[in-house]
């Protein structure tokens, strides 16, 4: 079969996707209208034209502005349902969704409104397609440790709807150790742990995420190759990297698809997975990430199979279910 068809059709898991990053400009405008929220962009086209990023921060500023239209449980449902339809079309069988509660609670939106809306959409996807989806709550690293602890308190009544904890937003200047105590508390609660590290930040942040936060996966992690000892450790301990190729190009971590270090990461024996990060902002959902990487780099059928297998191995699906996919 044609490689592009294999990539599209193979069952896969998506492990690094910010649900607020799946808000398409059309839905942003529809929700703004429905909720009477005013945007500083006059039209869908004007908003889309603003999607020219020079680095992570320039993206985050627009991403938080986009999320400001989300107010009701139905808004969170509609956003999540739109993503799950796209994921299903890409043959995603399991998805682990990041959400950023602080982006919403800071605007006066109730924590339960956020979780209940997202969660109800995941239940409908399970029922309709057998697509399983679980939620990973992220702390915004530009906010304080105290604010992360307060957010964890808000989450406790919804503990059974959340499988894990992540760390996202501005990486430089906000090293993992800032959140060591709150991550330790989350570990005691039996939550899975992940963190963004080594996207714009140095390999040192990957090491401290492992040693001080005790994370099980690294989100991005592409800068690990600058440190040979760290790379060997990630390979030996089979710590997965949730790599987001189109994100890396849009945020200027790499200039072009052909410059991405995906092949070197795979050759180093790392458990690499392919993910869409913020698909509405970075030019495509998970299959588009696969297609563009495989078009630009010397990758073939065996790599496709390995990346799909890695996505299930690296997932937090319960062990018996995971075994079915491996
Ligand atoms: C993010 Cl690409 C990326 N990095 C860090 N934080 C984020 N939140 C949403 N997308
Ligand atoms: Zn991310």
From TrEMBL:
The active site is at 199 (proton donor). Its cofactor is Zn(2+). Keywords: Hydrolase, Metal-binding, Nucleotide metabolism, Zinc. Pfam families: A_deaminase. GO terms for cellular component: cytosol. Catalyzes the hydrolytic deamination of adenine to hypoxanthine. Plays an important role in the purine salvage pathway and in nitrogen catabolism. Residues 11-326 form the Adenosine deaminase domain. It catalyses: adenine + H2O + H(+) = hypoxanthine + NH4(+). The keyword 4Fe-4S does not apply. The record marks 220 as: Important for catalytic activity. CDD domains: ADA. One of its GO terms (biological process) is adenine catabolic process. Its EC number is 3.5.4.2. NCBIfam families: aden_deam, PRK09358.1-6. It comes from the Bacteria. InterPro entries: A_deaminase_dom, ADE, Ado/ade_deaminase, Metal_Hydrolase. This is Adenine deaminase. HAMAP family: Adenine_deaminase. The keyword Zinc applies. One of its GO terms (molecular function) is zinc ion binding. Zn(2+) binds at residues 16, 18, 196, 277. SUPFAM superfamilies: Metallo-dependent hydrolases. It comes from Noviherbaspirillum saxi.
């Amino acid at each position: 079969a044609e490689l592009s068809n294999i990539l599209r059709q193979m069952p896969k898991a998506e492990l690094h996707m910010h649900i607020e990053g799946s808000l398409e400009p059309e839905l942003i405008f529809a929700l703004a209208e429905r909720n009477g929220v005013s945007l500083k962009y006059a039209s869908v086209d004007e908003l889309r034209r603003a999607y020219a990023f020079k680095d992570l921060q320039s993206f985050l500023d627009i991403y938080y502005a986009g999320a400001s239209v989300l107010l009701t449980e139905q808004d969170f449902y509609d956003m999540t349902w739109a993503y799950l339809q796209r994921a299903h079309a890409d043959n995603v069988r399991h998805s682990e969704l990041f959400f950023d509660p602080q982006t919403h609670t800071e605007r006066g939106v109730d924590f339960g409104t956020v979780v209940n809306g997202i969660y109800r959409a995941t239940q409908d996807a399970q029922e309709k397609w057998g697509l399983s989806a679980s939620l990973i709550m992220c702390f915004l690293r530009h906010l304080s440790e105290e604010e992360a602890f307060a957010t964890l308190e808000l989450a406790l009544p919804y503990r059974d709807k959340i499988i894990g904890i992540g760390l996202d937003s501005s990486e430089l200047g906000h090293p993992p150790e800032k959140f060591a105590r709150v991550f330790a508390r989350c570990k005691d609660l039996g939550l899975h742990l992940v963190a963004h590290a080594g996207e714009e930040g140095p390999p040192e942040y990957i090491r401290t995420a492992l040693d001080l936060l005790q994370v099980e996966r690294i989100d991005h992690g592409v800068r690990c190759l600058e440190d040979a000892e760290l790379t060997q450790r990630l390979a030996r301990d089979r710590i997965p990297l949730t790599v987001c190729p189109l994100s890396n190009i849009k945020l200027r971590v790499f200039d072009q698809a052909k410059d991405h270090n995906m092949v070197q990461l795979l050759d180093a024996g790392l458990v690499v997975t392919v993910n869409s990060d913020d698909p509405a902002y970075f030019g495509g959902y998970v299959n588009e990430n696969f297609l563009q990487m495989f078009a630009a780099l010397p990758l073939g059928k065996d790599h496709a199979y390995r990346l799909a297998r890695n996505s299930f191995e690296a997932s937090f699906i319960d062990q018996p279910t995971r075994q079915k996919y491996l």
